[in-house]
Amino acid sequence: MPPRLQLLSRASTTTARTPYQPLAPFLYPQLQHSRSASILASLSDTKGAYNKRIRVGRGPSSGYGKTSGRGHKGQKQHGKVPAGFNGGQTPDWVVSGTRGEKLHPNFSSELSPVNLNRIQHFISQSRLDPSLPITLKELASSRCIHGVARDGVKLLARGKEELTTPIHLVVSRASAEAIAAVEKAGGSVTTRYYTPFAVKNIRKGLMDPIHSLQSRIIMSEDSVAGAEQAADAIAEERMRYKFRLPDPTGRKDLEYYRDEAHRGYLSHTVAAGQGPSLFFRTPGTSRRSKGVKGEVTKAKKAGGTEGSRLW
Q: What is the DSSP string of 132-166?
């Protein structure tokens, strides 16, 4: 360091009488790094990046001495007061009740929204391929959505008039308006069940994003060729993927994906004339057979005989 300063001062004090003599070539690399290491002492964090912690109980000059800002006596100085505590009386939220609806965490869903105009924009930029089914894996890898929530993706209808390409979407949920817009453009929407474990492994390529065991149920039991195709598909899935896509087990999820109005992937399991509910009977149906009821009514009108009784 000192020789460098001497060489620089000698070069700066040259006059017209003593022309400047170039330095030796082996000194050039040393002169290139002329910044001093003392810059490290002036480095500091951005202003307002952190706040200094207030140390209480360090004497009266600090402003937080003696009682440390808590005042004199009482529960607030010696301990903590629970939220909503009303001095031992009945809390206000018990007396007046709570306003609004708050879903229990077990029944709430966390979904990543995606709109039709954004999907069309990514298709126009060739960032999504409309010839293949678009699942949450394609939406996340193309950055059409930034991350996938724990329960999957919900399709919304904002910018539906901009959708001109027929697309085939496989998402967790979809609004009725979005379904109508996609089908009007010549595409299709299929809603299927995803779990947080499934979402994570689908993005890693360890799980099939579309098919599961219940989505491969053969409608006709007599179709031997269809059963063989389903068996081959399951065998191929085991070789290609590490995990198998799960199906719903809760009543709420089963009823949603059994509903044709939601384009659920389990709607093919619902018999003709039946509803998607697992608890309520379809309106217009009864436990008693209509044929037996009609026979009893006719027998009563005819006067009835011993041979026409059912018991």
A: S-B-HHHHHHTTSSSS-BTTBEEEE-TTGGG--S-
